[in-house]
Amino acid sequence: MSELAPLALLVEDEPQIRRFVRAALEEEGWHVHEAATVQRGLSDAGTRSPDLIILDLGLPDGDGIDFLNDIRKWSTVPVIVLSARTGEAHKIAALDAGADDYLTKPFSVGELQARVRATIRRQRQPGIDNAGQVRFGDVSVDLKDRRVSKGGASVHLTPTEYRLLAVMVASAGRVLTNPQLLRSVWGPSHAEDGHYLLIYMGHLRHKLEDDPAQPRYLLTETGVGYRLLTVAT
């Protein structure tokens, strides 16, 4: 293994899962360091500066959500959660706390590797160029002048539609939960008003997607939130 290989920190207390994940990551060229507790994981994250963290939620000395809340105070390292908890509430809690992705046990080697590649690709993707220009598909967003065009033609967005698009562009590739979007666009008092998102996401899709009924970029994560799939400059 090359000394220049990226480092993944695996925070997981089950030895069998650790062996499985280690083998999958090493196959993709990663160095892997293991930790079995929240406290050891946080310590290793601070001293080893990993390029990626794979995190189990159920740890012997605490919950993975506590780990996320702590590390997001000082690090933007990408975190993929692994968990046997399949409920939407658990996924939302992890994503709200700062996870970049959520993979439910059991999972395959191929799915884990694909999620890791996608997460790292999003981290490396600049998204916004020096002039504040963002593009996905044939849509161009000028963040500096607040202009949006599709296929070279200007697209009129209402202030609320533009705020929603700008929030998604800023976190392109990541799942944004419904409460996150509602708080960012409409304010804290509207965190439960999910119908706002249905309406305004529909508006954006009609204006920016080629086929609003089968969107390619403004995607729904069922029961959780939405994701802007790709942004390229």
From TrEMBL:
Please state every residue range assigned to the domain named OmpR/PhoB-type: 131-230
Among the GO molecular function terms of this UniProt record, one is: phosphorelay response regulator activity
Protein transport found in the keyword field: no
List the GO biological process terms.
Answer: positive regulation of DNA-templated transcription
Q: Kindly state one GO CC term assigned in the UniProt record.
A: protein-DNA complex
Matching entries from Pfam families are given as: Response_reg, Trans_reg_C
InterPro entries, alphabetically? Answer: CheY-like_superfamily, OmpR/PhoB-type_DNA-bd, Sig_transdc_resp-reg_receiver, WalR-like, WH-like_DNA-bd_sf
Residues that bear 4-aspartylphosphate: 56
Response regulatory domain spans which residues? 7-120
Residue ranges the UniProt entry marks as DNA-binding: 131-230
Q: Which organism is it from?
A: Massilia psychrophila
Cytoplasm among the record's keywords? yes
Broad class of where this protein is predominantly found:
cytoplasm
Q: What is this protein called?
A: Two-component system response regulator KdpE
The cellular location(s) given in this protein's UniProt record come to: Cytoplasm
Q: What does the UniProt keyword field contain? A: Cytoplasm, DNA-binding, Phosphoprotein, Transcription, Transcription regulation, Two-component regulatory system
